[in-house]
Design a protein that fits this description.
alpha+beta, 1 helix, single chain, two-stranded antiparallel ribbon, about 15% helix
Length: about 100
């Protein structure tokens, strides 16, 4: 059953952080999970953050944000990103689907 309640930025971060912690990578996840997306770059809405800040702002309809957890091991790191739009009827992932890893040196 889907729970209908306000969701805050820090709660999104906590969920991602708990998943990564449960797999033994907590010490390698040392930045926020995501940020608000505006017309140009970062927006003024809720950030998915309970590490750098404790973002109490609600995730509200007609906003967009990134979910981009990263695990940075001593020799390499892995980071994924999906962008999410919150509409009147729920959330949907936007943008292209990445099919292969991209190496950044």
């Amino acid at each position: 059953m889907e729970e209908k309640r306000a969701l805050r930025g820090f709660e999104v971060d906590d969920a991602a952080r708990e998943h990564i912690r449960s797999h033994g990578f907590e010490e390698y996840f040392f930045h926020r999970t995501g940020h608000s997306i505006g017309r140009e770059v970062h927006g003024t809405g809720a950030n998915m953050d309970n590490l750098e800040t404790h973002d109490e702002r609600r995730v509200i309809p007609w906003t967009c944000f990134s979910v981009e957890p990263g695990i940075y091991l001593p020799k390499f790191g892995v980071r994924s990103e999906v962008d999410v739009f919150i509409g009147d009827d729920g959330a949907r992932v936007t943008g292209e689907i990445q099919r292969e890893p991209v190496r950044i040196c």
